[in-house]
Specification:
Elements: H1 5-24, E1 27-33, E2 40-44, H2 45-48, H3 52-66, H4 71-98, H5 105-112, H6 118-122, E3 123-128, H7 131-152, H8 170-174, H9 179-187
Antiparallel strand pairs: 1-2, 1-3
Helix pairs in contact: 1-3, 1-7, 3-4, 4-7
């Protein structure tokens, strides 16, 4: 299980970020306006929670970076993952369970041209569909993944070492260099022929 912990964490973080982006494009709320402006409006996740899309993209980036970073950054990314999950979860729950006027105000203003405190007087009802609750579940999962990262990061295989430069004098211990190793030696200013004199 520990051997696959990094892969599991990366896949789940990326999946949560992707679902967050998808959710931002879906309809979260339906608004019925009253009076002369009477008609129905739909409010997307991005309109109800303006930070939903950018923070979801940040989660996607975190997932990609998590696959290569070292131990210290794993913990930093784990904490950041938890913070994003808590913030997004709070906002999704607020929309799902309280149906705030603030979540639909921009959409109502765009449709009617009326802004400010007058917006609430135009609204007859606000109804949420399943997307806010589904998105809340995604952020609860992300919170669990963040805790999982913090609990297991110290035992992950250090795949980031493949991106580090080989130690100086590698040819002396590892034998004959191939073409790629020779280029690496040259990029460090070493003589790949083994003379040990920097160029």
């Amino acid at each position: 299980m520990i051997a696959r912990a990094r892969l599991l964490a990366v896949v789940l973080v990326v999946a949560c970020g992707g679902l967050g982006v998808i959710s931002s494009t879906q309809t979260w709320l339906s608004v019925v306006l009253s009076g002369a402006a009477s008609h129905d409006l739909t409010v997307s996740g991005a309109a109800a929670v303006p930070v939903l899309a950018p923070l979801s993209l940040a989660v996607l980036a975190l997932g990609g970076a998590l696959s290569i970073v070292g131990t210290v950054l794993r913990y930093a990314f784990g904490v950041l993952t938890i913070l994003i999950a808590v913030a997004q979860g709070y906002l999704a729950a607020h929309v799902a369970f309280t149906h705030p006027v603030s979540a639909v105000a921009r959409t109502v203003t765009d449709a009617t041209g009326i802004a400010g405190d007058s917006v609430s007087g135009l609204i007859s009802s606000i109804t949420a569909n399943a997307w806010p609750v589904l998105t809340l579940a995604v952020w609860v999962l992300l919170l669990a993944v963040g805790v999982f990262i913090l609990a297991t990061a110290h035992r992950w295989n250090d795949s980031g070492r493949r991106y580090r430069a080989a130690p100086f004098g590698r040819h002396g211990a590892a034998g004959r260099l191939d073409a790629v190793d020779s280029w690496d030696e040259l990029s460090r200013g070493e003589d790949p022929t083994g003379s040990g004199e920097p160029r």
